[in-house]
Amino acid sequence: MALLDRWTRAEHTDSGGVTHPTYRRGTGPGVIVVHEIPGITTEVIGFADEVVDAGFTVVMPHLFGTPEGPADAAHILRSVGRVCVSAEFNKLALGVTSPVAQWLRSLARALHEELGGPGVGALGMCFTGGFALAMMVDPSVAAPVVAQPSLPFAVGKRRGADLNLSPADLDAVRQRAATGCEVLGLRYRKDPATGTRFDTLTRELGDRFLRVEFEGKGHATLTEHRQQAGVDRVLAFFDEKLHQPG
Predict the structure, then answer these.
(1) Domain total for the chain?
(2) Nearest 10 degrees: Cα torsion 24, 26, 29, 32
(3) Phi/psi of residue 69, each to 5°?
(4) Which of 25, 35, 23, 234 is nearest to 143 (CA)?
(5) Cβ neighbours around 39 below 10 Å, total
């Protein structure tokens, strides 16, 4: 049986008419897990299953790649080629929010409206790592998790420090943090793809940015180069922010 056979496939369309497929499983508060390059791999599904088992309704958008495709070099190159020509993702420009954030915010609002509670969780990883920041502009997102954020591509110091947010969205993120919304971040300390974004987040959000850093040059903290301490911290964060007492 394919791993996604246990998941319900649907799709979400935002007010602008943009549509992407989704996969959903579980019960409880909502969490949106946005996959990394090359797509919804078996490792991403495995992590998402753990979030389900912890008592959450998980929705995985399918933004690119082949669901359950291998994380091999050929598949990675195909996915990179597709996202590099897609207008939905900002790869190099500074101070710009990727357009796909509008669709992701719409998905978060719809899930929160359906499930209620204090809000939904949002987790991005690698290429999509910073998308959780863009999503927290919407008040429906109560638990944003930024795992090894890698956009814009860290070519040069300025891009390596950039958060993939427009000035207006960065201001909204600051305001939400100032009123109590914490952001959890995970990375390997020597991962070149993340640049100095964690320093930028600490400067902009202060102690509302919760840094979880591992030694070494790994990259995918929750999947291919999984750190159990990181997975446990994410699940505890979602539990604290999304499960209502009693």
Answers:
(1) 1
(2) -30
(3) -70, 160
(4) 234
(5) 22
**Angle between helices 228-242 and 42-53 in degrees, nearest 10:** 40
pTM above 0.90, yes or no: yes
Q: How many CB atoms sit inside 10 A of residue 95's CB?
A: 15
Q: Structural domain of residue 232, as residue ranges?
A: 3-242
Q: Which helix (H) or strand (E) holds 20?
A: strand 19-25
Cβ atoms of 241 and 118 within 8 Å: the answer is yes
Positions in the chain whose pLDDT score sits under 50 = none
219-235 tens-digit pLDDT: 999 999 999 999 999 99
CB 124 within 8 A of CB 97: no
pLDDT of 1: 54
Report the SS3 class of residue 47. Answer: helix
| CATH number of residue 90's parent domain | 3.40.50.1820
